[in-house]
Request: fold
Amino acid sequence: MTMEGPYSSADQAATDTSYLNIELEMVRIWAKRKDGAWFYMEQAAAESKAKPYRQRVYRLTEVNDSTFRSETHTIRNGERYFAPIGTSTSSLSCTRIPSMDGGLHHHLASLQEHLSGGTNGRDCPNSRSGAAYATSEVTIRSDRMMSWDRGYDDAGKQVWGATKGGYLFLKKRKY
Reply:
């Protein structure tokens, strides 16, 4: 199974208007590094793919035979370093990301044909839209990815994120 590739939530958005049509592109970077598998991800509204609203670097490491850990890193001023979805990332190097901040950590269980997991309780501080912390759940299969990110205030009330369930991203084509 590979996480690489272009994904879209167009089918979900077409059947449920509470979800937006989002494009997500995940590209493997730094393949020669020995400290895990590294991926660069851009996320953008389908109508404005050239202006992604989210850029992340993910590091996936094996904890044991059945568990993986995914570290999510945000990139300050990412637009200075990366091009829009679909362009080459071959010139990327870890030295070109001087402001990579540690972020969410997922613990993913390897379950037959997929990975599934999420963050742990209130472990991920977050200040977006009045949140005190964020949670994230993810399931990754060979042809799709489900991601459900939510923010909560100190009282545990949800202040941002989808309320019905996660975004379902279908893989558009294989690399």
